[in-house]
Each structure stands twice: as C-alpha cells, then as structure tokens.
Automatic annotation (TrEMBL):
Keywords: Signal
Organism domain of life: Bacteria
Annotated organism of origin: Roseateles oligotrophus
Region (Disordered): 399-420
Protein name, entry field: Putative nucleic acid-binding Zn-ribbon protein
Length: 636
C-alpha cells in the first residue's frame, strides 16, 4: 500500500471517529428566535401599560365621589334664587303691572282723541253766544288729550324698562343653569370614563394573565386574579345610560329672539302713537271741508291710512298683551331644568361611591397581579435576547451594529431622497395630465376637489360682455372648453390625471362678483398689487383671462405662483386655436417646478409667471415668450 493511500485511509477513519460538528443555526431558526423575543417584549410593554393604567385609575377616581355633593349644593342655591324670582320678579310682577298700565293708557288716550274731535265739532256748530264756552271746552279737551299722550308715553317707557329688567334676570338665571349643566356634564363624562377604564383594565390584565406564552415562562405561576364582585360599576353605567342629557338646556335662541321681538314691538308703538292722531286729525278736517271730488278722494285716502294705522296699533297691543305673559313661563322652564339637573346629580351621588370603590379594588388587584408577570417577562426576555445574540454571532460572526434594532430582516432600501430645488418654497410634483374637463360654479370653493390642475376663466368685468369683441372672444373660449367632459362625469379614480377649467357662473351668464372675488383671493391678494392692476384694470386687457394653478385657488397661498394668460392680446380668429394649443401643451409637459413654473418651450401663447420674489421682497412677473410668435403675434 502506498504512503498516499495510507494517509487517505487514516484521514477518512479520523473523520468517521470524530464527533459530528454542531450545525450552524439556519436563518429560519434565527428569525424564529427573534420573533419569540419580540413576543416577549410586546407582552412586557402591554403589562407596563396596564400597570400605568391601574395607577391612573387610582389617581383619576380620587375626589370623584365628593363632586356630586358640591354640585347638589349649587343646584339647591340656584333653586332658592329661582323660587324667589317667581315670587318677586320683574318678569312676574313688574311686567304684568306695566302691561295693565299700558292698556289703560291706550284706552284713555283714544278716549281723549275722540273727546277732542267732539269738542271741535261743538265749536264748529256753536251759536255765537255759545262759542266762548265751546272754545273753553275744546281747550280742556286738548289739554286732556295732551296729558293722555304723555301718560301713554310714560306707560310705554315703564313697560320697556320692566321688560329690560326681566331679560337681565332671565339671562342671569340662564347663565347659572348653563354653568350647572356644564359642571354636571363634565362629572357625568368622568363617571362614564371611570366605568370604561375599569372594565378595560380588568379585561387587559386578565388577558395578559391568560396568555399561552405567559404560562410557559420559567419560574412563573399565574395566580387567579381575585377581582372585586358587586354591581357598583354596572349600576352606575346603567344610570348614566338612562340619563342621556339634552343637547340644549335652559333658554334657547328662539326664546331670546321672541323677547327681542317683544321689545321691538313695544318700541314700534311710539311712531304709531304719533301717526294715528295726525291722520285722524287730518281726516276730521277733510270731512268738514267743502265737498269736492278732490276733497272726497283725499278724505277717503286719509280714512284708509288711518284705518291701517289703527289696525297696526291694535295688533301691536295684542302682541304685547300675549308676550307679557311669556317671561314668567321662561322662568318656570329654568326652574324645571334645575330640577332635572338636581335629579341627575342626586343619582350620581347615590351610585358613585360603590362604583368608585369597585374601581379602586380593580386597580389594586391589577397592580398586585401584574408585577410577578412583569418580572418573569423581563427575565425571559433577557434570556431570549442572549440566545438570539449567540445564534446571530455564530451565524454572522458579529452582532449587528445597531444591536437588536438591526436584527430584523432588512427592509427594502428606502428611496433616495431628492434634494428640493432652491428657493423659499418646496416643489410641487408635476401632475401626469391626460385630459381636460370643465365646470360651471357659483361660489368659491365649489370647484370639485381632487383634479390634477385648475384653470379659471375670467373677465375684467362682466359688463365688458356688452362689447361685441369681448363677447365674441368669450363665446369662442366657452365653445372650445365645452367640447371637453363636464367635471361631474369624471370618476374620482381618474381625476388626478385631469385638468379642470373652472367657469364662474353658468353657460348663459358670467358671475361678475365671483370673478372679482377670484381676482381678489388669488395668491392671497397678490393680484391686487399696483403692478398687476395695470394688467387687470380698466386700462389693461378686457379679457378673457386664464389663470392656471396646480391646485384649487382657495387652497393656494401667496407662495403659489400661477400662470396668467391674456387672450385679449390676440386677434379674434386665433383665440380658439391658441386655447387649444395651450391645452395640449399642459397635457404634454406640465410645469415642473413651483418657483420656476413654466410651460413647454414650444408654447403658442405668451404667458406670464406671477409670484413672490425669492427674497419675498416683492412681486415677480416673468414673461415667457412664445416660440411661434410669427404664427400668433399679439396685437400691439
């Protein structure tokens, strides 16, 4: 046997007799250990959060039981004030008394009016020897009429003063009711949170204790949690469920509007008090004048006016008579609201102690049950991390530079960040436009959202449509745009690839006020600058204009430059072709950068880029010349 064969045989024998080498852990085994470690860490974090929840529950429930008693004291004090107001209040006493004086004053005044008319008739019919006495009687009648007028004015002022005092008292009472209602609502929310937090803490803690992984932890033996028994929390929850509070307690806006209307009607008596005697005096004189056709017609007109004034006065008095009774009813409603709030608070005062005691016991049990589990999870996690580290080291020769955070399977590489273009504003991604659409709209913000870009068709003034050349240009533009799809037919899934033309008004009329609002709002008012007014003012073009932005105008800012197109610079017969060319250019190569937003080099229409300068020191207007000026040269 040769030496070579001998060596080969000895080597084979040694290999067979040698103990087998321990295989390196596979990537699958390494990943399994990593996932086991992550499960332990996730349970440990949940246990920490549950422990924090138990501490928060104990702290949050402190002082909760005492609050209903304090609020009940406030409710009782409010009840005492409202009851006192029912006994002696401007709403209950002064206003009804003022109404009685007002009604009596009106009756006395109208009687004095009639007495004065009778006195005048007596003067007119008196014989010579009776005339002096008739005159003195008439003087007395007019003195009484004047006194009645003054008494009525005073009664009306007293009525208004009583109503004002009543409204102030109602406002104070309603404010107290609203304060009590707000405090009661906040207490109810805390009580409801107590029931929900306790239930959630118990469920989470029990779920942690029942985890299959927790039952396999070395040295850990879960003990059944001794959760507190009783119906304290359930009774409180049911009580709260049956106490759904009204969205509006106390006095409502309609109540205050009715009181304001009552005040307005009382104020309206003053002009009627002046108008009615004037009309009746004139009618009385006209009735005694010579009978002519013109005079009779005049008297008839005066009679009709006087009758309407009398009807208005009577209607106003009836409204005041009815309205004077309503404030007392409002005061009664405040008292009923207080009683309802007090009943809710009393129920909370009855149910909260047992519920709070059960919540505190639940938190204490959770804090007792969780620490052994947390300790076992920390120990098992440390062992699992060590086992993973050893396996990782054996597989890869060294630990990852970031430790455990780098141990997970490597995620796909992140996209390489693209540096933004220079300038004060970030670039807007150029939309991939494939089509156009149009929309008539009647208020700013009504443009359909989600489209890739927006252009607005504008005029200097809607009155310019009276000019034949402007009307023809505008009609040509509308004809071109209305060949496209209407915006409402564009599906939401394709809107981002569609450029929307926004047309103020309707197909039959241009909304001039909306157009001016757009010019005012564009770029937060930049188009109102003096340098732009030269382009948009009466001495500039009459339009139509187009302004194009990468988003809706109401969403744009002063840092969002726009493209401005003045179609009034071109002959009428080229407008349609120029607009079609502009539309094609936007689809072929939409402007790429916000600060250097420019159309493709071969555009047919002269465009103006408008925006803030880079140092925000002013407005820049960059004219982008056409490449085909010879084909469509602007008019000088």
């Amino acid at each position: 046997m040769s030496a070579a064969r001998l060596a080969c045989g000895l080597g084979l024998l040694a290999a067979l007799l040698a103990p087998p080498a321990q295989a390196k852990p596979s990537e699958q085994q390494l990943e399994s250990r990593y996932q086991s470690l992550q499960q332990l860490r996730a349970l440990e974090r949940r246990a920490e959060q549950a422990q924090a929840g138990a501490q928060a529950l104990e702290g949050g429930s402190q002082g909760l039981v005492e609050q209903p008693a304090a609020l009940l004291q406030r409710a009782q004090a409010l009840r005492s004030r409202l009851l006192a107001q029912q006994q002696d209040s401007p709403c209950v006493q002064a206003l009804p008394q003022a109404q009685q004086r007002l009604s009596a004053g009106v009756q006395a005044w109208q009687a004095a009016l009639q007495a004065s008319y009778a006195a005048v008739q007596a003067v007119a019919a008196a014989r010579p020897g009776e005339l002096a006495q008739a005159g003195r009687s008439a003087d007395q009648a007019f003195d009484q009429r004047q006194a009645a007028e003054q008494a009525l004015s005073l009664a009306r002022k007293d009525w208004l003063a009583a109503l004002s005092q009543c409204r102030s008292q109602l406002a104070q009472g309603d404010g107290d009711v609203q304060d009590l209602s707000g405090s009661s609502r906040r207490l109810r929310e805390r009580a409801l949170a107590l029931t929900e937090s306790t239930q959630g803490l118990r469920a989470e803690t029990q779920d942690l204790l029942d985890q299959p992984l927790a039952k396999t932890l070395p040295g850990y033996q879960a003990r059944p949690a001794a959760w507190p028994q009783g119906r304290g929390l359930e009774d409180l929850r049911q009580a709260l469920a049956g106490q759904v509070p009204s969205e509006s307690l106390g006095l409502q806006p309609a109540d205050w509007s009715a009181l304001a209307e009552l005040n307005r009607q009382a104020q309206g008596l003053a002009p009627l008090q002046a108008l009615l005697p004037r009309l009746q005096d004139a009618l009385a004189y006209a009735s005694q004048a010579d009978k002519t056709v013109a005079g009779e017609a005049e008297a008839q007109a005066l009679g009709e006016r006087s009758q309407r004034a009398q009807q208005d006065l009577n209607q106003g008095l009836r409204s005041l008579q009815t309205g004077a009774q309503s404030p007392a009813a409002l005061l009664e409603r405040l008292l009923q609201t207080q009683q309802g709030l007090a009943a809710q608070l009393q129920l909370l005062a009855d149910k909260l102690p047992a519920a709070q005691q059960q919540a505190a016991a639940t938190a204490a049990q959770a804090r007792l049950s969780l620490p052994p589990l947390q300790a076992a999870l920390r120990e098992a996690g440390a062992r699992a991390q060590q086992a993973w580290a050893e396996a990782y080291l054996e597989q890869h020769g060294q630990l990852p530079g970031g430790g455990l955070a780098k141990a997970a399977p490597p995620p796909p590489p992140p996209p390489v960040p693209v540096a933004p273009p220079p300038g004060p504003t970030a670039a807007l991604a150029a939309p991939n436009l494939a089509d156009h659409a149009y929309q008539f709209f009647k208020e700013l913000g009504a443009e359909l959202p989600g489209f890739g870009a927006y252009s607005y068709l504008l005029l200097h003034s809607g009155s310019d449509l009276a000019k034949p050349d402007v009307a023809r240009r505008y009609a040509k533009v509308l004809a071109v745009l209305q060949r496209e799809r209407e915006a409402s037919t564009v599906a939401a899934s394709e809107a981002r690839q569609v450029h929307l033309f926004c047309l103020p008004g309707s197909a039959s009329s241009y909304a001039d006020d909306l157009g001016k609002q757009i010019l005012f709002r564009a770029q937060s008012g930049l188009l109102t600058r003096p340098e732009m007014k030269k382009r948009l003012g009466p001495k500039g073009g009459t339009g139509p204009f187009l302004i194009t932005l990468p988003l809706r105008l109401s969403e744009a800012r002063s840092s969002t430059p726009l493209l401005f197109v003045d179609l009034s610079l071109y002959p009428e017969d080229t407008v349609a072709d120029l607009l079609s060319s502009y539309m094609s250019d936007l689809l072929r190569d939409f402007p790429r950068e916000q600060l250097r937003w420019k159309p493709p080099l071969q555009q047919q229409v002269a465009l103006t880029m408008i925006g803030l300068s880079r140092d925000v020191s002013g407005l820049f207007m960059s004219v982008l010349p056409t490449a085909s000026a010879a084909e469509a040269r602007p008019r000088p």
